[in-house]
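Q: Protein A?
A:
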Amino acid sequence: MSFTLQASRWSDVSLVVGSRALSACGDFLAATTLALVLQESGHGGVAVSGLMLAAGLPLVLLAPISGRLADMADSRTILAVTAFAQALVCAVLAFTTHPALIIALVALLACGLAFTQPVLSALLPEMVRREDLAKASGISQTAGQVGVLIGPALAGILVGQTGARVPLLIDAGTYLALVVAAFAVRTRRRRSPAAGVPAPLVPWRLRDDRTLAVMVGVLAAIVLGISAINVFDVFFIRETLGASTTLYGFVAASWTVGMLAGSVVCGRVPPHRITPMAMLAVTSGSCVPLVGAAFVGDAVWVVPLWIAGGFFNGAINVFVMVFVAGRAPSAARGRAFAAVNAPIQGAGMIGLAVAGPLVGQFDLRVLVASTGVAGLLAALAAWPIVRREPPSPPAVRGSHLVRDSVGA
């Protein structure tokens, strides 16, 4: 659907990928810094939970609006204006100490992310040929994970050496860099007027594509479990398995290492092989290590299991980009990515919310195994539905977006 380039624009991909890595690093730099600020100022888990909620809830609530805007407005305008506003908000954050105001400003930052995320997701398929999309997606996911790895570590160093203000101002600088990148990228998504009248939006709804809707449900179940694991594993690894803090650090990092490997390897998969059944296979693969971890006797064995789970998680991230881009018309991809991301983000927040009260109420091995079993059951329930569906929906005609070759 609308993969019409004669050659992929790798220079544009490099700009977007670099921006993604810088943005992820800056976001996690700020998030870790603010969590440390709240903790060091004597505020408890409620304040930190509020911070996490403020960072995630706007992405869910604003999805219907941000998706439509991504398909209606010039992508360059959205990215530049939003990133500039986020830079201002982050600069104000650097001089803010009241916890309620910090949480409110973090919510504003997340509102910006809610608008830029579907734009960037919809823009990447416009930059490359269909056969190069998995590679481009893999590169993008890898860059984001590198940023995620660097951000928290850098925050810990900077907060200890300089205080909270410097890392937050650095984050503001990353948003200004995104403004520059928005103007440097030649590829644009923008409305093409007909006789001076803006064309109507191409009709698209998630529920009209049953296979995609089912896959979103499966992915939401997987993400809910993985989010819960983020709460369970510190107790499971440290208390049930008796690991040292050093070993726990290796376990915590191993999932991200696996995601990096999965993004790189699965970026080489030909797009025609990224089918609904392949999606079910990788989602199931991310659940099996969670079940296996419940039966180990030493935390050392969790490391390879988490690497395997992260590998399939990285594959999911790559496959989702190709899968959604192949099933939604070009002019509707902003709404498509927003509609797909919202329930998945929401499931992740639910997983974090419900996991805490469960610790101490149930055996941790049971809790860890249950997260994997729930994901496997969701994939199993989806299998008969997906198996009967065609690999892709009928093409939707009438795209009203044009793609610039020189960014004029």
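Q: Protein B?
A:
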Amino acid sequence: MNQRLFIGGTWTEPEGGHYDVVDPATEAAVGAAPEATRDQVDAACAAAREAFGPWSRTAPEERAAILARAADLIRERLVPYAGLAQAETGATTGTARAMQVGVAAARFRRYARVEPAEWPIAPQINEAGPMGKAGVVGALAVRQPVGVVACISSYNNPWANAAGKIAPALAMGNTVVVKPAPQDPLSVYRMAEVLEEAGAPPGVVNVISGASVEVGETLVASPDVDMVSFTGSTAVGRRIAEVCGRDMKRQLMELGGKGVALVFADADIASAVAGIGTTFSFYSGQICTAPTRVLAQRPVYDRLVEALTTYANRLPVGDPRDPQTVVGPVISAAHRERVESYVELARKEGARVVTGGDRPPHPQGFYVPPTLLADCTNDMRAAREEIFGPVVAVIPFEDEEEGIALANDTDYGLIDYVWTADIAKAFRTARRLRAGGVGINTVARNMEAPFGGFKKSGVGRDVGSYALHAYSEVQSIVWPG
């Protein structure tokens, strides 16, 4: 089926034609995605601008009801939607159902909860002066919608990532133009269908896509766009920020990561291995929060490398539709070659490839085996740059001070992890790590906790109530008491 664009409440034929969306596991075409032209991107932005006034004035309870209906519809269609997500992304069945479509439904449900948008501020007593007579001045802080939000989502999780932008943006009264990643845009069009069915007025949600970079460039530069919410690489985020800076557009950026797992000598090694091992299995390492850089204290270094090797070797690699599969393919042939090039570079730099590194014998599909690099140093490119694949680099350290220094010696700062039996040391270390989040003896997330990065890992925070702040401007209103 040839997918159409969704502009101003109308399913529109793309003037740029279509391109194939490829299943990473089979290399077969999943469907034909629409290629928007510059004029169609501009039309989507104009539709969102026109819809903004009425939608921003809609009662929050009415907006919430639409989000709740969308959540119900996604949940009802979980199995077919997960099948499409699996075909587009190569995710395993469990991941596609629970972590992609399931999380998307949960995010729409979360923002169907109306929260206060006004906060009283303590009255202030003013003395008489140039600004007026003496008196008491009252004040109120009010969250207002930003306007038209360009939502540019990542390929690793088209459902959860897009929903995490669209739902809080709509809840706050913004309108959106969504540009999904070119590799897997079809799922986001299903999301648009759901929102249309749930009652979103024309122009409130618009979806445009394209394999050409000009689609995203046109969207970001549009004078109708007030804010850009982007998830993706730091390199692309930097270019977007440059364009936004020229017009002072609000930004929310979730960018690259090189999460460190700091494993102290007193750690529960089995727990650490299970957490670090998610890099091998979860999205085949295509996730910015993965603990891809492991710092192991000398007394447990050899034991940790051995345990990680055993763990990696037990993970079945193959067809993500097979219930036994744990590690599916990466998104594309080009990305597979990129990941493989980092492994080869690590070899040349002196790292020891303990397991993995060689392409598995699958006739079709873009597979990379779980790969463990030992005896690394923190200056190796494989230890410093985001690989975005099932590759873990292990680096030894001597004491707490060196471990923290090595952990912070990176351009990134999204999520780090600490494993130790000493809780005081765990929290002491966490506070010294330059990262937006720190997991202590876990890789689990609290979905109400603020999410975002330090340094080149991003700008701003979202998730939970923090997302409502991210997609709003705060207005102060003052009056004489």
